Amino acid sequence: MKKVTMGLSQSLVFGYNKKKYAEAEILEGIIKNNDSMIRYIYRSFFPGIKFMVGSFHNLSLDAEDVFQEGLTRAVINVREKKFKGTSSFYTYLTSICRNVCLKDIQRSAKRCEVSDIIIENDDSETCEDELIDRMTAIKNSMDEACKQIIDLRFGLRKGKDILINSMNPVENMKFEEIAKLLNIEPDNARQRFRRCFEKFKIVLFNDHVWKELTI
Amino acid sequence: MQRNSEYNDQIERYLDDTLSATEKVLFDERLKADPILSKMLSSRIILQNTWVKNGQHKHIKAHINHLINIEKQEHKSRSTKWLVAASLIGLLGISSIFFVQHTRNQNDREFLAGDKILNRDKSEKFIQGQQNEIKKYGSVDSVETNKTVADNRYLPADRSVYRASDTILFTWPASVIKERLIIFDEKGSEVAELPLKTDAIEYKLLPSTLKPGSYTWTLPPNALKYQFSIRQ
To answer: What is the CA radius of gyration of chain B?
Structure first.
């Protein structure tokens, strides 16, 4: 994880870094996975997001949850260059967080059979986020051994931070490598993956939410 | 079902790039001709991407959560530091207010009690002054006790010199007949006539009773006269 070191000019007063960053610096910090920048974003932008979240009623999420989810999506989008920079990062983050809130209310409304909530249509929200959300729920229902072998096959190794975009397809881990890691035969790894992946697809394709999202 | 299983195997080998040249050509042709295979491959890639993105999302969110927790802890620590500093400053401020108030009250009390103290001081000074004077005179003047004075001697002896601050002790032999003590100035004018008891053997003249100058004293009807002078 590459870290951008802070200069001496950002002197600490009682441990508090008072420096304000320019837009370009914020985006650079996010792309370079700078921990200090994430903390700066939290320090600077959370109060505003908290205020915005407070304006929503019947929200099952608290401000911290909304901020974490919104910032995660914003960070991924910035790293994948989906953020065009047409607005400030704060505006973009606020927009994502607002949509997180609206989605949450929409889910609650669906549970209550009320569906008059209109999600704001901007570049901050895609159907992909919904698919990812849904996949989280389905993945959580799977057993750990299956999740592990699919993770390995799909190139998600612990500590490896993979960024995906259309120009950079995901790399599969070969069954020989997986077999070495799990101390099993390659054929055994292949069969275990096929079995687990099939099980996963069955659950996924039978999920009514997933179906709705992928129509 | 059998075909699907076969396709899945081929897709995995295709993605691993482990198909032989012939198998790869066949696979590419089938991909174009068979929409099921095409759909299965595209579905496999989409699912992988979504799966990985999900993992990535989870990983980034966990990292953000971790950083936020650190920031919150440090914020709490900073807040505590500031709170302690503010408390100390506040305490110092309150203490200084109390101190100033106390000092002011003390000054006020002293000011209010000033007159009394002043009066007391004055009286003390007055008493002290007297005591000091007695001490002073006791140490500076040439008073001699009766015991040390011989019966045949008269004091102040002739041409004695005193300071204005001295107590002048007049003594004479007990046998001398006397009625009064008379003091004359240098011009011979009578300055003081002091009546004496018949058994008196001394008379004290307090300081500053006489002005500096030359004097003579006598005990009529005794005709003897003794000169003495007082200096400033």
So the answer is: 61
CB contact under 8 Å between B56 and A38, yes or no, is: no
Q: What is the ipTM metric for this complex?
A: 0.78
B15 with A172: Cβ contact below 8 A: yes
Taking 60 as the threshold, does the pLDDT of residue B123 lie above it?
no
A9: three-class secondary structure by DSSP? coil
Q: Which residue of B18, B43, B56, B88 to mutate against A (max A Cβ within 10 Å)?
A: B56
Q: From residue B163, how far is each of A201, B12, B142, B217, B229 by CA, in Å?
A: 130, 134, 10, 17, 8
Per-residue pLDDT tens digits for A31-70: 998 999 999 999 999 999 999 999 988 888 899 999 999 9
Chain A residue numbers touching B70 (CB-CB < 8 A): 39
Partner A contacted by B42 (CB < 8 A): no
Per-residue pLDDT reduced to its tens digit, A81-140: 888 888 999 999 999 999 999 988 887 776 544 444 445 545 545 567 777 878 888 888
A55: its two tokens:
């304006």
Do A154 and B82 lie within an 8 Å CB cutoff?
no
Residues B191 and B230: their CA atoms lie apart, in Å, by 14
Measured between CB atoms, does B69 come within 8 Å of chain A?
no
Residues contacting residue A34 through CB under 8 Å, at least 6 positions apart: A3, A4, A28
Which of A34, A40, A41, A42 should we substitute to test contact with B (largest number of B Cβ atoms within 10 Å)? A42
Q: Is B80 on the interface with A (CB under 8 A)?
A: no
pTM higher than the cut 0.80? no
